[in-house]
Write a structure and sequence with these properties.
four-stranded parallel β-sheet; Uroporphyrinogen-III synthase; elongated; 373 residues; Rossmann fold; lyase
Length: 373
Amino acid sequence: MSSAQIGYSSDQLAGFTIGVTADRRSDDLIAALVRRGAEVLHAPTLRIVPAGEDDRLIADTHAVIEARPDIVLATTSYGFNGWMDAADAAGLGPHLLEVLAGARILVRGPKARGAVRAAGLSEQGSGAEETTASLVDLVLDRGVDQQTVAMQLHGYVDQDQLDRLTEAGARLLTVAPYRWADPPDPRQVDRLIEAIVGRQLDVVTFTSAPAAEALLQAAERADQLSGLLAALAGDVLPIAVGTVTAAPLRRVGLNPVHPDRFRLGALVRTVCEQLEARVLHACTAVGSIELRGRRVVIAGAADHGVLLSPTGAMILKILINAEGGVVSKERLRELLPGVSDDHGLEVAIGRLRGSLGVSGMITTVVRRGYRLG
């Protein structure tokens, strides 16, 4: 499949199962994946709670208006828009806009820039890498000693960056238009962890660093962290929307993939490209086969696709990777969750053969194991 086609075919992701940890904009992400044929397990590991007319947010807004800051840092479009909405609801909108118009506004990236401009304001610079750290780099390069800096936070407080500003001599004010709260359904998070550990997913997507951190913490509480990390380092691919989101995963030794552009559309495209690269091919006695997640396409008199069970797909994947070699029963039992004895393995092999609907693809090697025919 050409790169121009990747991510745009209606069956591009058919057979693949993808975990989605996002809360905000999860509907957009899920719709994009489902349109391409994927099965999705949605388990928000955190939820975003807008501060609205929260007393703390209003008090912080009053403080910004009274301080008339020299520099204003806008980090996210969602947060900046939420701040403007809350100020309007409290009757502070015109006063806040007047103060912001007199400040030097710097933004973290294009989305924050769009929110600033939508409010009728203009920015004077942006971070080079669309991260809070690069935004602070920009501020420090221009100097902040004895200047008042107002920073719109984005739910995930990076204390190191705040410390950099104050240590450089800035008088720092912060505003938090939203906060992170516990997930709406903790049981769904548990199901996500079980699916990852059981290798029932092909990819898990992450769109925020707090959500990634929350998944790791939930796995640790469930005494499943080692199993989760092993799966995410092997069969289940973690894909983050950007470098900041990937950071908590990298800290625990994982190597998540992320697109060059930190956008939802780029994330979907990366999922498509990465899963296309994981499609397995083999030649068997019944013809060539292609394994796409849980969907096997058998080329014979007519091509047809069969959706396998998670265990069946895992068995076929192991046999394909053996490249015609025999895989012992002991090795299969080690690799298959929930299969603990020869009888259970024989049942699983029998079900796989039945699902495939063709004879001769999987061969029993007496007293040794199984291989592709």
